[in-house]
């Protein structure tokens, strides 16, 4: 039995992994920027006394991103689960902002 974990990856695999690592880094930075903006939205909503969640906007976003996923050959179910995860976190941030205002 060969121990593949101890082998040095070949150049092709190393290049793929470097690209994946770069994409992962970009995703983290993009999510950080998205959450900076949604944090400001949450603070604004709290200031003007809007509810933390906007189900109509969420539904429009889900449909929009499902369509984009299909065009990009990405599983729309996966994209919706990912978006739902992000939206749920944003709503938690908005709820905290509303609670801090009180």
UniProtKB/TrEMBL annotation:
Its EC number is 5.4.99.5. InterPro entries: Chorismate_II_sf, Chorismate_mutase-related, CM_bact, CM_dom_sf, CM_II_prokaryot. Keywords: Isomerase. Residues 7-98 form the Chorismate mutase domain. Pfam families: CM_2. GO terms for molecular function: chorismate mutase activity. One of its GO terms (biological process) is salicylic acid biosynthetic process. This is chorismate mutase. It comes from Croceicoccus mobilis. The lineage of its organism: Bacteria, Pseudomonadati, Pseudomonadota, Alphaproteobacteria, Sphingomonadales.
